[in-house]
Specification:
Structural class: mainly alpha
Number of domains: 1
Distance between the termini: 21 Å
Helix content: over 70%
CATH architecture: Orthogonal Bundle
Number of strands: 0
Length: about 140
């Protein structure tokens, strides 16, 4: 996976975290990221898709998560919540990206930005979500 796309996910995580915590408009936050040149090494189109796609599809994303988390989605740590929402968005809408890449990127974001053991929590939830949303892909991969 390209570093530019990884950087897009990192920036989308930070921007979504800011949105969750402040309630600022997406436009204001995105403008801040552009002005600070935080997107210089990121795939801007992918950042924009994730940053706008998660809020636009929030109800469906949170419904998918709700079946696999141990508390209401809003009670999940804000960093972990943003990571999970990005990954579920990708599992639903980016069928061109293999599920194992999405899970790996989510785990790496949790290792970098999350609490000490959060990557294990992220991995457990995303593995279950992926098995439901991408069952055919996972079965095909195991049978090949």
């Amino acid at each position: 996976m390209s570093q530019a796309r990884t950087n897009a996910r990192r920036n989308a995580l930070q921007a979504l975290y800011q949105w969750q915590m402040t309630g600022q408009s997406l436009t204001v936050i995105e403008l801040q990221f552009e002005q600070d040149e935080r997107l210089k090494h990121a795939q801007r189109s992918y950042f924009s898709e994730l940053f706008h796609g998660v809020p636009r599809n929030l109800k469906a994303i949170d419904q998918e998560l709700a079946a696999f988390v141990d508390r209401p989605v809003e009670k999940i740590d804000p960093v972990e919540r943003a990571i999970l929402r990005i990954a579920v968005y990708e599992l639903i809408h980016r069928l061109d990206v293999p599920s194992r890449v999405i899970l790996n990127e989510g785990i790496n974001l949790a290792k970098y930005f999350g609490a000490e053991e959060s990557h294990k929590y992220i991995n457990g939830i995303l593995d279950k979500v992926a098995r439901q949303l991408r069952a055919g892909e996972i079965t095909a991969r195991h049978n090949s």
